[in-house]
Hints:
alpha/beta, 10 strands
Amino acid sequence: VLGFAQMRRVKPDIVLAFFGAPSGVAAWLWSFVSRTPYVVSLRGGDVPGFRPYDFARQHKVLAPLLRQVWRHSAAVVANSKGLRELAVNFDAKKEITIIPNGVNLERFHVPTRAWSPPSLLFVGRVVYQKGLDLLLNALGEIKDLPWALHIVGDGPRVERLREQAMELGIGERVHFLGWQTRAQLPATYACANIFVNPSRHEGMPNALLEAMASGLPALATRIAGNEELITEQTGLLVPAEDTQALREALRKLLSDETLRARLGAAAHKRVAGEYSWRRVAQAYLDLMTKITASK
């Protein structure tokens, strides 16, 4: 991340700004000084309409500024079809390209794993957006099957979720592991055999990409990002906020070790073929080369 003083020394041909704000605002201001073109890469929270329960007020204030940042850019990129649709709803005048997120296949790869007993894993911020309250409600009605849930991450809802798990009678099966470093995560994925992402909103979740690269079958909500990554061959999708559908899908995965292994193998193959860092980086390079060549 470069400041303006460093930018003057580097003299970039083009600037890639991840997030419309604040990075996109900085790139826009720099373009006035230097006439340097810039690309805005939308991530989720920087798009009005995303997570309205968290960002409605901020988006209302920032909307006029974001429109200027987008319209003066050489290109705007969304990381999923769903996020692009949300962005178009906000400003249909700007063409928006899709370049998905990618994953480091050297760090996240298929380990030797045990497919039984069922071990569920969630990785991410422990916030309302992620739908962990829905997951616990669904699991609270599956006490007849063996399973354990490991939650990696931290956030303001940890204590409430602990209480919820105890109230549902599953407190001993739900383990809060806190934040982990990038170096720790591959081993954590290796110890699981089902990845869960019951989120209410996503752009394109990096944790899901990491899990699939690690050969894990995924159970997730049918929302932006998730629905592009997960197919019938790689995992299960359920409607957002639908606890009953989530519970039924959980039962299906928890009851079938062979299904878990088959979906996990297909998940890795899909991500390795289409979502590697190299592939995504090349897409950004091609876009920026085209822009600079036309200057």
